[in-house]
Amino acid sequence: MSSISGLVAVLLTVLQWAGRGLPSPVRPICDPRVLDRFIMEARDTETALRGCKAGCGVTGTFVVPLTNVDFVVLETKDTEEQALEVQSGLFLFGQALGAVRESVSRAAVKSLIDNNKSNIHSLGQVLRSLHIKDLSLSPVPAVGDSATRKVSSLSELLRVHTNFLRGKVRLLLTNAPACQQNST
What we know:
mainly alpha; Growth Hormone, Chain: A; two-stranded antiparallel sheet; disulfide bond; erythrocyte maturation; signal; EPO_TPO; cytokine activity
């Protein structure tokens, strides 16, 4: 009996000692394969829903961010400005995909849209892992803003989403200071 209580005492001492430290910070997610998976899933959704017109029941217009990248302008922006642009874009895509999900009736389409919304949330987690400040409470670009445009079809929305991930999101993750420190 005393050997069991001694073992329990040692075990409790070790657990108490191990629990004293603060939880370790989230390690940066710099592996490009993570973003590649999100891009592949966005592209797969785009391909799967390309022919979905009357059956999807998606109507209306959606505000999306511009996807073009001016490298001269990009070089003048710091990481925080780039992060704000990416986070605002992800917010707009989340809003648009939420509206699409509400308007479709087919379960398969809803599932694909849900997956893309989940990936947008996961990208926010990736940005936090890179110690990029969450700027999602900052003002989101307005409809007439020069950083946005309107799209009127599901296929166009999904194409712009894929291009945004391949362009601005990839550049931000590639140039994030936390990833630069890991590569040295």
